[in-house]
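Sample pair:
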Amino acid sequence: MKSVQQTATRPVLRVVGAEAVPIADMSNEDLMLEHGRGSEEAFNQLVVRHQKGVLNYVYRMVQNRQIAEEITQEVFLALVKNAGRYKPTAKFTTYLYTIASNMVSKEWLRRKRRPKLLSFIPGRGGNDDNYHPLNHIPDERADTVAAYRREEVSQAVNDALRHLPEHQREAFVLRRFQDLSYQEISEITCVPIGTAKSRVVRAERALRPHLEKYREYVR
């Protein structure tokens, strides 16, 4: 997948009062505001921080690498398009994953409207068993056997997620893989906090039989 980042990130300082803040130390919200003022470096930093997470989230939702990459590109292009209108009324991650969630919902709707057509388009509508999200087990020093085990677990998780209703899958992934709060999930999915919690609990209950042999590897 081609990175959305177009130029190399370099130490850029933003003047705040008498202090100079390195771009890498700025909050997500301040980076987005700086991007709205025309800072390409601020946008590049947002891509560095969040592109992998968004890609993994989208892939777990749509179960297709090509579509996940396309949607991820669209998410960051939406940040560019809306930069001038951005207001930090919520956490940046809430804002970012709301965009991603809306695009995933559109993809699901397209599939429901054209299920037969999609099945005949290479790279669309099917599952991609050769791709695995990048951050499910953060162990960069693992040997070959452990790496194979990670791949096996990742595929088992993806297979299990296919058994969940869409709304439960989304709540579960946002909570357990993206580590968002229930408040954020509530805002992203437009449901009460209690409903968000309930969806995660139901998802965990439904996934348990499918992941029993991997329970030491998954949360």
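Residues 68 and 97 are 14 Å apart (CA to CA).
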